[in-house]
Design brief:
about 65% helix; mainly alpha; 11 helices; 2 domains; single chain
């Protein structure tokens, strides 16, 4: 059973780590704490990593993916916040779920222009983009190919929005 107090205590501890430690040390402490926490608190706990924007975050997400039972957009938010690249997106799309769903959410965050419904204040202020600036047609083609493998409504909607964002439709 989900314990809201336990989740809140975890977040407070992780925020204090960021406040009192240098980024590399904070990343190690936070990911170590998250590695030990129960799976049901993982999606909430990752929020602290958004503020670090650490280069090792994508590797940690890959290592942690086996624990993700419900792929909330918090994972895509974290990937986008951590200087997401098309190279990582392609790799995750090729690996399949849950990484492919995280990649789609991250791509959506990285291609959104202007404000969107329920966008976090962090996202409004920082506006992440794909760091390696891939060609639009390359991204669109890869996403269309991915739809042949995974065409559930969530995937179709995400791909449609990303492509529309890329082409400013």
């Amino acid at each position: 059973m989900y314990d809201y107090q336990k989740a809140d205590e975890l977040l407070v501890r992780l925020e204090q780590v960021i406040e009192y430690h240098e980024p590399d040390e904070a990343f190690m402490i936070i990911t170590s704490e998250l590695d030990k926490c129960e799976d049901i608190y993982l999606s909430e706990g990752i929020g602290a990593l958004n503020f670090l924007r650490h280069k090792k975050t994508h590797g940690w997400i890959e290592d942690t993916a086996f624990r993700i039972k419900n792929v909330s957009n918090a994972w895509g938010h974290l990937a986008a916040a951590s200087y997401f690249t098309w190279e990582v997106a392609q790799k995750w799309l090729d690996k399949g779920r849950p990484l492919s769903l995280i990649a789609l959410d991250a791509l959506l965050f990285c291609t959104t222009r202007g404000e969107r419904l329920n966008q976090s204040p962090w996202m409004r202020q920082n506006r992440p983009t794909l760091v390696d600036n891939p060609k639009i047609d390359v991204v669109a083609t890869k996403l269309q190919e991915y739809l042949k493998i995974d065409s559930v409504p969530r995937t179709r909607t995400a791909v449609e929005k990303i492509i529309n964002n890329l082409f400013d439709i």
